[in-house]
């Protein structure tokens, strides 16, 4: 496994691999890797000759009062996860390498960002689209891998690839969960003991919503209200949002039909957790 800190060094290495007919898989991350990231890397390992992992805490996707400075970082741990997951190359640039000068243009995401996390974090997905576009241009992979825990991000990247004719295949990887159902997240380390005990309620409320839909409920408002009731009764967290939308369009719906997403964000003292399920209703 090789580690590259500069764009030119990585590009030169990958150009040689492409010239030799190697298929390249790419997993972009902000580091502090867990089993969810490992599932992306293992999927990439299965499909490709070369697996590239990027670790970069991207400042353009953080707002003024968000956790950029305190975002967890542990490169030694990340190296071990990467090694165990079959990574060939780690791209580990600093901010100056990725943003060497003031930007001269702006990439703005228009659709699907005024809801869910996008509504609460204005400009966040513009920053995501910017760094992902830069990374796609640097790595030029055949396949990219993103987890469905952040399904809104996946929808945004899917639109980005389509809009700009980026020659890459997007692979969507299911959410990886703890044994009690809690979605794996770098931010889970911020939970207190009590909050960690309460956090699995998020997924349980989604499972309950699916059961209601399976039993015939088609009113999206009733589903949202039932999830909120469970979260408010059984956790000390503050409900940030509970929404049912069409997917991947992320449009409001009143009647549940077709492919939908049920998405939750719950704020605890030091961590804001997100989770979702995607269902197709005939």
Automatic annotation (TrEMBL):
The active site is at residue 37. The keyword Ligase applies. Beta-alanine binds at residue 61. It is found in: Cytoplasm. Residues 206-233 form a coiled coil. ATP binds at residues 30-37, 147-150, 176, 184-187. The keyword Manganese does not apply. One of its GO terms (biological process) is pantothenate biosynthetic process. Homodimer. This is Pantothenate synthetase. It comes from Gottfriedia endophytica.
């Amino acid at each position: 496994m090789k580690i590259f800190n500069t764009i030119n060094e990585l590009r030169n290495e990958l150009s040689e691999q492409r010239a030799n007919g190697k298929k390249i898989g790419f997993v972009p991350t902000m580091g502090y890797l867990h089993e969810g990231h490992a599932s992306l890397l293992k999927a990439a390992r299965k499909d490709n000759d070369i697996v590239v992992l990027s670790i970069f805490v991207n400042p353009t996707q953080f707002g003024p009062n968000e956790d950029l400075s305190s975002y967890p970082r542990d490169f030694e741990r990340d190296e071990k996860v990467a090694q165990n997951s079959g990574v060939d190359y780690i791209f580990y640039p600093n901010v100056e390498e990725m943003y060497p000068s003031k930007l001269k243009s702006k990439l703005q995401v228009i659709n699907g960002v005024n809801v869910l996390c996008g509504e609460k974090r204005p400009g966040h997905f513009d920053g995501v689209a910017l760094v992902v576009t830069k990374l796609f241009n640097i790595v030029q992979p055949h396949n990219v891998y993103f987890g469905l825990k952040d399904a809104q991000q996946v929808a945004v990247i899917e639109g980005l690839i389509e809009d700009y004719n980026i020659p890459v295949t997007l692979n969507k990887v299911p959410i990886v969960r703890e044994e009690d159902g809690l979605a794996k997240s770098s931010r889970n380390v911020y939970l207190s003991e009590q909050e960690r005990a309460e956090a699995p309620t998020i997924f349980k409320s989604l499972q309950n919503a699916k059961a209601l839909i399976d039993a015939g409920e088609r009113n999206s408002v009733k589903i949202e209200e039932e999830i909120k009731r469970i979260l408010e009764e059984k956790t000390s967290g503050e409900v940030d949002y509970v929404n049912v939308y069409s997917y991947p369009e992320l449009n409001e719906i009143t009647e549940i039909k077709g492919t939908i997403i049920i998405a939750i964000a719950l704020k605890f003292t030091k961590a804001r957790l997100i989770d979702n399920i995607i269902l197709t209703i005939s």
